Amino acid sequence: MAEAALPGSSSTARPAARQAAQNINAPLWRNALFVAPYLIFFVTLLVVPLFWGVWLSLHKADAFGTGRFVGLDNYLRLFRDKIFLQAVGNTFYFVFLTVPALALIGLLLALALNRKTRTAAALRTVYFSSSVLSVTIVTLIWRIVFIGNFGLLATIYGWFGATAPVFLSDPKLTMIGIAIATVWWCIGLPMMLFLSALQQVPQDIYEAAALDNASRWRTLWHITLPSIRRTFVLVIIIEIVLQFQLFGQARLMTQGGPNNVSKPIVLYIYEAAFTKWDLGLGAAASEILFILIMIAALTQYFISRRKGVEG
Amino acid sequence: MSSISSGMVGRSTGDRIILILAISLALLMMAPIAWVVAMSLKDNKELMTDMNSVFHAPYTIVNYINILATSSVFRWILNSMIVSGTLTIFTLVLSSLAGYGFARLNFPFRNTLFVIVLLGLAVPEQAVLIARHQLFSWLKFHNTYHGLILPGLAAPFGVFLMTQYFRAIPKELDEAALLDNASRFKIFWKVLLPLTLPAQATLGIFTFLSSWNDYFWPLISGTKKEMYTLTIGIASTQTNFAQSEGLGFLMSQAVFAGAPILILYLFFQKYIVTAVSGAAVR
């Protein structure tokens, strides 16, 4: 489809150029041909499914087709479903475990590695490298670290004659185990975001501080941290949105168990829609996830804006 | 340049302690990977009797030879390359055209359309997955390459990135060409596109990586074993993990699947870093 638009726009462009040369900024329908190929995909594969999903959530639908209109029935079923409510709680718990850790460790790493030496560059490469692995490889690595009796953790504990905590089968530790693997996997992005923010802090402020003999801590506390406050909020928002969508780690490390303690909302959606084929219920659950993510992002946004006005 | 500009001052003792801590943490981070690589180089029977054998010789490449002989890994790598490669090329074409259109040209409803596309950045995958799945069922697109590729083409990130990039190029360049009666497409193709090569590299690698690592859509759309992508294929071999007698073999698959993407990362990390920081500067 992309190719189809190219010859079309170039063949009609010759007379158009003469016309346009007189008025470069005139709005022309023909110019929209450049954005049309993308918009076709955008509308058919994103906009339409978005509204179709809302419509589905109001219907009783299965693998064979969309059935009758049931209004908010799917949503009511969700609110009566203990497993769904538990999945919502699990997801919040996971976000609570991972997002502050990612933001703080990411910030500390960025502060430590914001220097122009080869060692620092090499360390930045190392810390970001785990982020390019797929969730399958990450979970493969961490399951073998955590597995009882012969995992890496058990082996290390064994050297000291101790028994390692069994992260993936003890209900109290399961989500913590998934969170550790997730922080290991995702730490590169917040670190990079903080690094690029640190490099944009105007240098003359540091020079002024150095002339005033400001200590390292005073410089960090009064200059560096306030300058990157916007990035801090951005990192929190990005990570909340990302970690709310926990799926692969939970599915591959624990299948949501034991007893659903590690089942997040997205795994619930996946099971409702693609193993039980209750598409209406799955769609309703995904709309609730959508709303939760929007609320989290908007709350962060407004809090940061209010602080910005005061500061 | 100066030690001040690095934010943290000079070569003091405190500085060295920070660096040593950062190096130790990096080693700790690498430990699980090193351990998995070591396991992949061990005989499976030896692993079963003593896990501490991971730390000493003999090592063997028999697990890797077994991959070449028995596994479907090659088919999955081929699938991933076809899907991620095609998606990357089409994303570059679509995003460049749209980025040029939004940044440089005027047409009715341009700003409204651009805002709508930007709002698309905020839509989580799950909000559209089920409807897409149903649409693709009707079209009989599941278990085909185009079924795996198409959803990625709707992502607005590339359009956003390219629009920003085209906006940053001085306008005099194409206005001069326009006065020479060059067509709009010719200006795009001959004058502006060559200037966007760094952005193309950034967007290309970013798209390739996220497509290569995608887990959810290939899981529900490519359900036949011969249509698995590498991510799904490797995941499918992981069942009955604890009972598995071929731990070394399993780990060699992980290394086999992870190594190419790590090598790609080491080669192109400059552009990946730009992509990540570029996303930050909204």
TrEMBL record, chain A:
Transmembrane feature ranges:
32-55, 92-113, 125-144, 175-199, 219-242, 279-303
Task: Tell me the compartments it is located in.
Answer: Cell membrane
- According to UniProt, the name of this protein is ABC transporter permease
Phylogenetic classification of the source organism: Bacteria, Pseudomonadati, Pseudomonadota, Alphaproteobacteria, Hyphomicrobiales
Cite a single GO BP annotation.
Answer: transmembrane transport
Q: Which GO cellular component terms are attached? A: plasma membrane
The record's SUPFAM superfamilies line, in alphabetical order, gives: MetI-like (SSF161098)
Gene3D superfamilies (alphabetical): MetI-like
Asked if the keyword Membrane belongs to this entry, the reply reads yes
UniProt superkingdom: Bacteria
Pfam families, alphabetized: BPD_transp_1 (PF00528)
UniProtKB/TrEMBL annotation, chain B:
> A single GO CC term, please?
plasma membrane
Membrane-crossing residues?
A: 17-41, 53-74, 80-100, 145-166, 187-209, 247-268
GO annotations under biological process?
A: transmembrane transport
The cellular location(s) given in this protein's UniProt record come to:
Cell inner membrane; Cell membrane
The entry assigns this protein to a family as follows:
Belongs to the binding-protein-dependent transport system permease family.
Keyword list, A-Z: Cell inner membrane, Cell membrane, Membrane, Transmembrane, Transmembrane helix, Transport
Q: How does it sit in the membrane?
A: Multi-pass membrane protein
What is the name listed in the Swiss-Prot or TrEMBL entry for this protein?
sn-glycerol-3-phosphate transport system permease protein UgpE
Identify the gene encoding this protein.
ugpE
What the protein does? Part of the ABC transporter complex UgpBAEC involved in sn-glycerol-3-phosphate (G3P) import. Probably responsible for the translocation of the substrate across the membrane.
Matching entries from Pfam families are given as: BPD_transp_1 (PF00528)
Cross-referenced PANTHER family, in alphabetical order?
Answer: ABC TRANSPORTER PERMEASE PROTEIN MG189-RELATED-RELATED (PTHR43744), SN-GLYCEROL-3-PHOSPHATE TRANSPORT SYSTEM PERMEASE PROTEIN UGPE (PTHR43744:SF8)
Matching entries from SUPFAM superfamilies are given as:
MetI-like
Gene3D superfamilies, alphabetically? MetI-like
- Subunit structure of this chain's protein: The complex is composed of two ATP-binding proteins (UgpC), two transmembrane proteins (UgpA and UgpE) and a solute-binding protein (UgpB).
Q: Which organism is it from?
A: Sinorhizobium alkalisoli
